[in-house]
Write a structure and sequence with these properties.
Helices cover 38% and strands 15% of the residues. The protein has helices at 11-25, 55-67, 77-82, 151-160, 192-207, 222-242, 249-262, 269-288, and strands at residues 45-46, 73-75, 86-87, 94-105, 111-124, 128-129, 163-166, 173-175, 180-183. The strands form 3 sheets. The chain has a 4-stranded mixed sheet. A 3-stranded mixed sheet has the order 7-9-8. This is DUF1738 domain-containing protein. Pfam families: ArdcN (PF08401), MPTase-PolyVal (PF18818). Residues 13-123 form the N-terminal domain.
Length: 300
Amino acid sequence: MAHSTTTPFDPEREIADKIIGALEAGTPPWRKPWTGTGGRCPFPLRHNAEPYRGINVLMLWLEAAEKGYASPFWMTYRQAEELGGQVRRGERSTLVVKYGVVEKEGEDGAEERRAYLKAYRVFNAAQIDGLPESFTRKAEPPQDLGTEANEGFDAYFARLGPSVETTPDPRAYYHPARDLIHMPPIATFHTQQGYYETLGHEAVHWTGGAARLDRLTRCKDRQAYAFEELVAEIGQCLLFATLGLTPSIDQSAAYIEGWLKALAEDKKAIFRAASEAQKAVDLITARCGRAVEQDHEVAA
């Protein structure tokens, strides 16, 4: 009799793999302060407009960015039916999880609190026909917001050395094989600071290239990719602090928390990443200096 070799369903691994897949494709959607498909994603909401929390926010952002969903609303198959909708044939659901605590009586009669994880699947409103109009949204095309470059920051990053390719493609990433940084047009960013923070993040990735600090050759599994993202985000914050500016630390804190979970909450990872980030910033400041030759600060 043949034995089944089916791998047991592991929702936490599926989540981690999804996150790491986003890292391999470029900057994740929650770190995209620009307009257009693939840019800033709507904050995910349940069918009753209650916001999702924790890791589910990251998962649904990823799926929305990958599939181009403009609606913030997500719901189960049954919830869609109760609202008069019908999931279209062939549409694939997205995994979300619920963490909770249940109290049970232990062997000694005392109450015990045990954590549990429940996985379930939801669909975006864009995958469902017949929903009320309030659930639908149109995809956002790139917008020219008039955000202008800062001559001092442009000159600063030009001294660093990497080629910076700008195209309408709404993604920001470092391309190791081509050894260049790709950026969307600055005019499509909501703020000037958002543009240069994103460029700084990718510049830290660039320092990990084989011809420089050679970190990226170690990115062979999900933990390594998550670690590299920690390095890039911490490095971006350190770089802006070095330049005498205030980084968007609130957004960075939430971003870093996600990678710590992908690293199985390795308590020492943050310290190792900070050390690597400092090396990256040291390389950048050695090439570019510690000041931006511009009379005014980067505009928020």
